[in-house]
Amino acid sequence: MKSLLFSLLFLALSPIIYAQNSLSGQITNAENGDPVFSTNVYFPELSKGEMTDINGNFHIKNIPNGTFKIVISSVGFATYSQELSFPETKNLNITLEKSAIEMEEVIVSTPFHQLQSENVMRVERENVAELNRKGAITLSDGLTQIAGVESLTTGVGIGKPVIRGLSSNRVLVYTQGIRLENQQYGDEHGLGISSKGIASVEVIKGPASLLYGSDAIGGVLYLNPERYAPQNKTDGEIDLTYFSNTLGYQGSVMAKTSGEKLKFLARGSYAAHSDYETGNGERVTNTRFDETDFKAGVGYQDAKFKTDLRYNFNKSKIGIPEEIGLQTTQKTPLLPYQEIDNHIVSLENKLYLKNSSLDFKVGYQYNNRKEFEEHHHEEDHSEEEPGEHMEHQEEEDTKHAALEMHLETLNYNLKYNLPKSGRFETILGLQGMHQTNTNYGEEILIPNATTTDFGVFATTHVHFDNWDFQGGLRFDTRHIDSEAVEVHLEDEHNGEAHAEGGDIAAINNAYKSINGALGAKYNLSEKLSTRLNFATGFRAPNLSELTSNGAHHGTNRYEVGNENLDNEQNFQVDLSLEWRNKHFEAFVNGFHNTINNYIYLQPTGALLEENPVFEYIQNDAELYGGEIGVHIHPHPLDWLHLESTFETVTGKRDNGTYLPLIPANSLTNTLRLEFENAKEKIYSKYIFLRHKNVFGQNNVSEFETRTDGYGLLGAGFGGQLAINATEMRIGVSANNILNKDYISHLSRLKPDGISNIGRNISVSVRWLF
Predict the structure, then answer these.
(1) H-assigned helices in 97-169
(2) What percent of the chain has pLDDT over 70?
C-alpha cells in the first residue's frame, strides 16, 4: 500500500520536477597536465557517476535540477569534492593533486553523504576487495583488519563482529540499505553474508540509535553492495581463490550492464572448506563449511526518479565443532551441523524534488535456520545387519532437523531531505519493522513471537568555514508478543515425554526510548582537525534473554530468562584528533561508554539436569579505550607506506568485575610497497608485510580464564596485467606464516583448549572483461 501511494505521489509531481541536465568535463594531473584515466566522477546523493576515458573526459546525463555534491577520486590523488548547481552548471574541468593518503570515498552510513574528512562522526571505511586480498577466508575474518573491530568465532566458518567489546544484538548490521535479521543473538549464528558482491564496509563505533533505532547500542556495520556498471557499459568478472589450510576454494562469476537509464547485475558464488588445521598440525573436527550465494539487482534512473531492486540468496552448511577427533579433509559437515537459508529482497525508491528529495526503502527477509544432531532412541534392531542401524539412524538424523526456526522480517524506512536553508541541511524520517519467529522443530530455543518496531527522527547538519555541527533526536517503540511454550523431551529409556525444567510463559512487553546525538568537527588548521561526539543508544532485551528456560548443551549450562528485563541504555563520548598531509597521517580516538541495565548471565548455584543454572540479570557497566594510528608515506619514496595501529578496550560491571569476551589489546604494523606505473606490462604491483601482536588478556570475567599473548606474521604480493581488452589481477597472501599455535580470547573453542587456525596461504585470480 505504501509503495502504491509513493508511486502515485511520483506521478502527480513528475510534470513539476522533470529536468534533463548533463555535465561534461576533463580530469587532469596538476603536476604535468596529463589526463587522469579511470577517475571516478560521482554524485553520491544521486547514486550516479562515470569513469573518465583514456583522455580524462567524462559525460554524465539525466541530472535533476538542484544543488548536489560531486566527488572526484582516483588512486594516488587527493579526493576532490564540490557542490554544483543545476541547470547552471554545464562543464567542469578539474586538476587533481598527487597525495600519499588513500583516496577518500563517500560515507553512506551517515545521513549527509560526506567524505570521511568532512564527516562530523568518524566512520571507518574499507574496500572489501582490499580485505580479501590480505587473505581473509570469510567476511567476518576480513573485518578484524579494521581498527576497533574483532570477531567472536567458532572455528573459521562462524564469526560475529565485535565493535569495541560489544557484539551480537548490540551491533547492528545493514546490507542492501536494510537491517539484517538472522537470529544474531546466538553464539553460533554468524553473519550469513558472502563478501562477494559487497563493495565496501563502513563501521560506526558506538551508539547509532539516532539513525538506526534499537540494537545499534554498540555500533553499526554497513555493507555497501557493489555498484552497477558505468553508463552504457558492460562488465564481467571471474574470481577464483584457493586456501591452503582448509584446502578450500571460492569462485565467483559476475556480469553487469547499464544503459542510459536501465541497469542490471548478477553474481553467483560458491565456497567450500575442510576442517581447519591448527599450528600443531591437528585438524579441528567438523569446522568444515560450504556456502552458496547469489546476488542480483535491477535499477532504473532518470532525472527525476531512481529505483533499485536487489536480491540476495545465501545458503550455508556449517559444522558445529565439539572436540578434536576424526582427522579428515572431507567437506561434507558431520553431525551436529546447521543449514541456513537466507533471502533478502530490498527496494529503494528516490524521488528528486526541487532542492529536496524523498527516499523510501522497503525490505523483506526470510531466514530459515535448521540444526541437525544425533537422536538417541532405544529400539529393537536385532533383525538388522551390523552397521545397518547406524546408517539408518544417521539418515534419519540428517532428514529431520532437531531445531528449525523461520524468521520473517519486513523493514521500511522513509526519509525526507528538506531543501537546504543557508548553512543548514535537515532530514526527517521514520523507520519500522514487523518480525515473526516460528518454530517447526522438536527443540525450541525461543518461542513463536512477533516483534514490532516504530521510530521517528530528525537530524540536522550545519556547516561553517572551520566548524561543522550535527545533531538530532529520535523516539522509538518496540512491542514483543510471544506464545506460551510447554517444553517436552522424550525419555531415552521408556519413550515417555517429560517436561524439561518448566514452561515458557507468554510475554506481551512494550519498550520505548528517546535518544539523541550531538557532534562537532573543528579544523584547527588546514592539516589538523578534531571531532567530539556525544550520543545515547538503547537496546530492548531479546527473546532469548526474556524467555529462555532450558539446557544449552553447547555451553553446558541451564539458562533461565527474565521477562522483567528493562532496556539497556547507554551514553558514549568520543573524542578524536587527526593530522593529514600529503605524506603523513595520524589519528587518536578515545571513547567512554556507560551502559545502564547491562544484561548478562549469572550462576544461581543450583543444578538442573546436571547443568549449573544461569539466569539473566542486569547491572550497570562501562567500556572505555580507543585506537591510535599512523600512516607514513615519505617523500620522494612514493612507493613506500608504513602503517601502525594500536587498539585497546576495557569493560567492567558496576561491581568492579570485568565483562566477558572483551578483545585483548593489539598492535599491528604494516609495511606496504606499491608501484602504480601503468606503462609496465604488470602494473599496480604491491607487496606487504604485516605483524599483529596481540597482548595477553588478564582482565577476564569470573567465568573466563586469562589468555596468553601471541604474534602473527603475514605477507602478500600481487599485481595487474592487461590481456587484450581485459584485465587480470593476481594476488598471493600468507597469514600466520610461522604457523604459530595460539588461542584467541574471543574463540568459543577456547574452554576446550582448541587452538585457532595455523598457517594459511591463499592464491587469488580475478579476470575482468
Answers:
(1) 128-133, 139-143
(2) 91
Judged by DSSP in three states, 713 sits in: strand
Q: Which amino acid is at 734?
A: A
d(CA 633, CA 511): 51
E strands, 274-372, are 289-301, 305-319, 337-353, 356-372
Determine the Cα–Cα distance for residues 726 and 720; give it in Å rounded to an integer: 11
Residues 349 and 358: their CA atoms lie apart, in Å, by: 8
How do residues 435-477 score in pLDDT, each as one tens digit? 999 999 888 888 999 999 999 999 999 999 899 999 999 999 9
Residues 6 or more apart whose Cβ sits within 8 Å of residue 392: 384
Mean pLDDT of the chain: 88
Which grid coordinates belong to 457?
Answer: 527522527
Which amino acid makes up residue 74?
S
Distances (CA, A) of 250 to 101, 341, 395: 32, 19, 29
Find how far residue 96's CA is from the centre of its chain: 32
Q: 136-142 contacts: CB < 8 A, separation 24 or more? A: 136/195, 137/243, 137/246, 137/248, 137/273, 137/760, 137/762, 138/190, 138/191, 138/195, 139/191, 139/193, 139/194, 139/195, 139/198, 140/190, 140/191, 142/195
Contacts of 619 (CB under 8 A, 6+ apart): 597, 598, 600, 653, 654, 655
How big is the CA angle at 319 (ends 215 and 549), to the nearest 5 degrees?
50
Cα–Cα distance between 198 and 277 in angstroms, integer? Answer: 28
Phi, psi of 570 (to 5 degrees): -130, 165
The 3-class SS string of 46-62 reads CCEEEECCCCCEEEEEE
Q: What is the average per-residue pLDDT within 317-328?
A: 92
**What strands, in cross-sheet order, belong to the sheet with 57-63?**
57-63, 21-29, 91-96
C-alpha cell at 431: 523507520
Cα(463)–Cα(67) distance, integer angstroms: 15
How far apart CA 477 and CA 511 sit, in angstroms, is: 6
Do 735 and 704 meet the contact criterion of CB atoms below 8 Å apart? no
Contact 299, 305 (CB under 8 A): no
- pLDDT surpassing 50 at residue 677: yes
State phi, psi for 55 to the nearest 5 degrees.
-100, 10
Is-cis flag, bond preceding 87, omega within 30? Answer: yes
pTM here? 0.89
User: Which residue in 200, 197, 204 sits closest to 221, CA to CA?
Assistant: 204
Residue 377 CB neighbours (<10 A): 9
All domains of the chain in start order, with CATH: 16-99 (2.60.40.1120), 124-768 (2.40.170.20)
pLDDT score recorded for residue 436: 97
Q: Is residue 95 over pLDDT 70?
A: yes
Confidence of residue 491 (pLDDT cuts 50, 70, 90): very low
Contact 159, 149 (CB under 8 A): no
CA 304 – CA 284 distance, rounded (Å): 56
CA–CA separation, 354 and 417 (whole Å)? 11
In this structure, are strands 233-243 and 584-608 parallel, antiparallel, or unpaired?
A: unpaired
Would you say residue 483 has pLDDT above 90?
Answer: yes
Task: Identify the CA nearest to 481 among candidates 451, 445, 524.
Answer: 451
Q: Sort residue 111 into left (φ over 0), alpha (ψ -120 to 50) or beta.
A: alpha
Residues with Cβ within 8 Å of residue 380, at least 6 apart in sequence: none
Alpha helix segments (H runs only) across 79-180 = 128-133, 139-143
Separation CA 160–CA 80 (nearest Å)? 36
CA atoms of 285 and 326, how far apart (whole Å):
6
